[in-house]
Amino acid sequence: MSPRTALQVPPADPLRALSRSLLLLSEQAQQAPPQDLLHQALQTLRGLVPFDSAWWGEVSAGESGAGGEAQAAPRNWLHGSIGLARGFADEWNALAAVDDFGLESMRRLGEVIRERDVVGVAPEDPQVVAFSERHGLYHCMALTAELPHSGLLFFVSVYRPQTRTEFTDAETVLFGEFALHLLQHWHHRLQRLQHESPRRPWDSFALAQPTGELLFAGLRISQALRAACPDWTGTRLPPAVVQALPGAPCNLVLGKACRLRLEPCGPLVALSIASRQHKQALAPRELSVAMLYAQGQSHKDIAATLGLTPATVRTYLRTAYAALGVRNKLELVAALRNA
Question: Which fold has domain 284-338?
């Protein structure tokens, strides 16, 4: 029997509190702006199960070799938090491979775990001990579950310092029920948003605010962004992508291999990995630049005609080449003729 199923059911008053909290969560899922939903939901959870700090977001579980050796450490790709330092996620990424609490949560998907579930199993890594002391993570409770079709896991963790009591069995039940409902609401909200934009595989799809903060990103597009921008740490899009967001709909080429399609999605911007097998529709400005270039005009001529800078013209041409799958001017002329 798992620790979760062995817990005693809370008395009537906590159950009524859970019912009220789930009703409020349903209202928030319908009415809150998508960029505010998770933060509002965690504040609702805080009224049900008091905590001092919280962390939530998306994580990849890492990979192991055939002999069990680590090939890739777990990684947090985007997150939100309450009461934690700005650099918390970056610090965790640096020690994720030795964080027994996080690893146990990723192994026991859909279950609530507390620090008591890992304490004493093996000596804690000194890095993790120092990290926990630095951020006041003495009493911990977390639930991790699959985020369907994204290639990533969704997690919620809450913490109390040493001066507070540990999370009780009753609070663990309440937390687990609320967190699973939250994941379901969040997935449904993401589905609705994806329906408002061109359909893409979930792992190749992302949603961001116009300022660049990510709300969702699948594993494949996250890995592509990291490969194109090695210094990218997640949560906020790389600067080159942020600069391109106001131009959506448009295509963007990052590095040598990352081709992105940007589309408006209500108040947000949807990003997806552009298909190599299918030609992507050009945005109006990209099409104008490509047509004029195909007709023989120079970068300077096109810039003067359209009121752009030569650098912007070159950017539009690069994205047009990538979207149409062409490598030179002759192929561009042919592609535009057949479009």
Answer: Arc Repressor Mutant, subunit A (1.10.10)
